[in-house]
Amino acid sequence: MVHQKEDLINHLMELIDVVSGLPECRSVCKRMYSNLVRRVKLLSPLVEDLKDSDGVEVGDDVVHGLELLRLALSSALELLKSINEGSKILQALQIENISLRFLNVTEQIEDALSYIPYNKLDLSEEVREQIELVHAQFKRAKGKMESPDEQLEKDLAMAQREQYPDPMIFKRLSEKLHLMTINDLKKESLAIHDMVISSGGDPEECFETIAYLLRKLKDCAMTENPEMDALEGDKSLIKHRSPVIPDDFRCPISLELMKDPVIVSTGQTYERSCIQKWLDAGHKTCPKTQQTLLHTALTPNYVLKSLISLWCENNGVELPKSQGTCRNKRSGAGGSDCDRAAIDALLQKLANGNPEQQRAAAGELRLLAKRNADNRVCIAGAGAIPLLVELLSSSDSRTQEHAVTALLNLSINEGNKGTIVNAGAIPDIVDVLRNGSMEARENAAATLFSLSVVDENKVAIGAAGAIPALIDLLCQGTPRGKKDAATAIFNLSIYQGNKVRAVRAGIVPPLVRLLKDPGGGMMDEALAILAILASHQEGKAAISQSEPIPVLVEVIRTGSPRNRENAAAILWSLCTGDVQSLKIARDLGAEEVLKELSENGTDRAKRKAGSVLELLQRVDPVES
After folding, report:
1. Residue 467: closest CA among 440, 434, 437
2. Helix, strand, or coil here: 266?
3. For residue 152, what are the contacts with CB-CB under 8 A and spacing of at least 6?
4. Which tens digits make up the pLDDT trace of 27-45?
């Protein structure tokens, strides 16, 4: 209980420190944001006093109260970050919803503070008094909605409703929303772009309104600051800057800025003329995902088209002309279509640039390697792989992320796998898997999976100590990280030596926990790995100790065809030569579900079910 309390206190201190270090809010949420930050800061003395009493035993009620506070502060941090990084215009349009979110977080913190039994804590008198005052502040704020800004509501309504709104409306809005400079407006444009991209391209109901208001506010800013208009009008300067086109704005076929983006049945977006040429050539698949198209209807992507228009306007880029001459850049068709000169320039920066240039170059190579097969061949051929492997040891976390992800994208090409391994990448990728940022760890796991497709690499990856680090990611990672870790572990465990490594590293208990949590989304992967490990004697013994038979029987009863098959295979391994496991399975009604599986399962499932049924028939029913 002491260690649990210490971990909670450390986490609480970290949350309060992060909240305290957040930048000042410059949006219509400023008052709610500032009040919440100020009140959270005032909780610091409580946590510091608790930190000073480390080692003191506490009860379950104290731990529960601190856990509630941790959850409440995590929600507060998430809300504050969303305000900081989000669109100011969207916040103004949705101020009522945002006020409710602040109210909800305030109530969460107040409830947590009410639950903590302060009389059981070794707190100084001064800290007790301060916490009472802070608690009183949260109580007063609880249930009290922020008063609406009537002038702001009126201006927003008139700006949307009237055909020719009064320019003073936009002047007031620009001041209220702090969107008065070109930098403010560019940041807002990026926030809107991120909002739409993170929604998977699904349009926000109010997106057209947001885009319209942003254009009007930009006009207003230029009217108020003519010198800003001159800056914007200097097209030669803007062209000299050559702004980087966001990846989402490029057609995956032509790699050029889209003019008329359309969506196909897989949800991918392409330039209309390019995808039409693809379809006219008789193709029935999505070029990017290779999935079969359910139909060939093309749906205009109005949201993305508006975003591209807005980006072009903000960056002084002319909207692209018709792309009727779109070329389908395919590998092997008359040589590589990559820009070798540009790649060589990026490699120069990787080799000789300063840390900032290396980070940017690695990021560019990451994107280029993701785009198409030609680029992957060209980048590797230019000698990028050894340079990227060196950057895996970079002290800059973002550079490290870019390097490992670039190697992941390059490893899609079968020929590049050997080059990556020969460059000595495996130990460094394993080190990133252990110590990198969460994104870097996820992509390191995915890279190891990609490399492990080659059998001899399975041995090298296991010997480099990857499996304990993958198990750690499987236990602590994001949902995507857990999937990446599980996929890599499954592939590595095909090699007998890695099965032993995985079992001895303690993989079985977390896998069985995942198996017992159907809502966690990891049952398929857990069953697949356990089915491989159960074929080894050490794996079988470890699985038996985790008592998985009840959940295996339930999976055979209700699971998907593949999961029923794997569950039956695990059950067969556990029951072979183990009368006690057979009795447990029999008492749980396994015979009935196995008979059904032996009739309706996959071929392998039928065989395993039949084998277990034979074993069950040999068990003396009167034995206890």
Report:
1. 434
2. coil
3. 28, 92, 95, 173, 176
4. 888 889 999 999 898 888 8
For residues 402-411, one letter each, b for 16 or more C-beta atoms within 10 angstroms of the residue's C-beta and e for the rest, the string is bbbbbbbbbb
Report the phi/psi class of residue 465: left, alpha or beta, with left for phi > 0 and alpha for psi in -120 to 50.
Answer: left
Q: Which tokens sit at 46? A: 């409580």
Helix (H) / strand (E) element for 545: namely helix 537-545
Q: What are phi and psi of 354, to 5 degrees?
A: -75, 170
As a whole number of Å, the CA-based R_g of the chain is 30
Q: How far apart are CA 335 and CA 329, in angstroms?
A: 10
Q: For the segment 277-336, what is each residue's pLDDT rounded down to a tens digit? A: 888 878 888 888 888 888 777 777 877 887 888 778 777 776 655 444 454 443 333 334
Rounded to 5 degrees, what are φ and ψ at 143? 80, 0
Q: Of 451, 391, 441, give the one whose Cα is nearest residue 421.
A: 451
Say if residue 57 is exposed, middle or buried (CB neighbours under 10 Å; 0-12, 13-18, 19+).
Answer: exposed
Tell me the H-state helices in 425-534: 425-435, 438-451, 455-463, 466-476, 479-492, 496-504, 508-515, 523-533
C-alpha span between 315 and 318 (Å, rounded): 9
Q: Which of 210, 92, 202, 203 is nearest to 154 (CA)?
A: 92
- Say if CB 195 and CB 86 are below 8 A apart: yes
Quick check: helix, strand or coil at residue 299?
strand
Q: How far apart are CA 217 and CA 223, in angstroms?
A: 10
- Amino acid identity at 501: R
Q: Is 450 left (phi over 0), alpha (psi -120 to 50) or beta?
A: alpha
Report the predicted TM-score, pTM, of the whole model to 2 decimal places.
0.49
71, 108 Cβ separation under 8 angstroms: yes
Q: How many residues are present in the chain?
A: 624
What separation, in Å, do the N-terminal and C-terminal C-alpha atoms of the chain show?
39
C-alpha 216/C-alpha 159 separation (Å) is: 9
| Maximum distance among all Cα pairs of the chain, rounded to whole angstroms | 95
Q: Look at the alpha carbons of 332, 337, 342, 346 in this order and tell me if their dihedral is positive or negative.
A: negative
Residue showing tokens 């600051």? 225
Distance (Å, rounded) from C-alpha 521 to C-alpha 529? 15
Question: What separation in angstroms does the CA of 490 have from each of 39, 69, 358, 460?
Answer: 48, 38, 34, 15
- Cβ neighbours, 10 Å, residue 332: 9
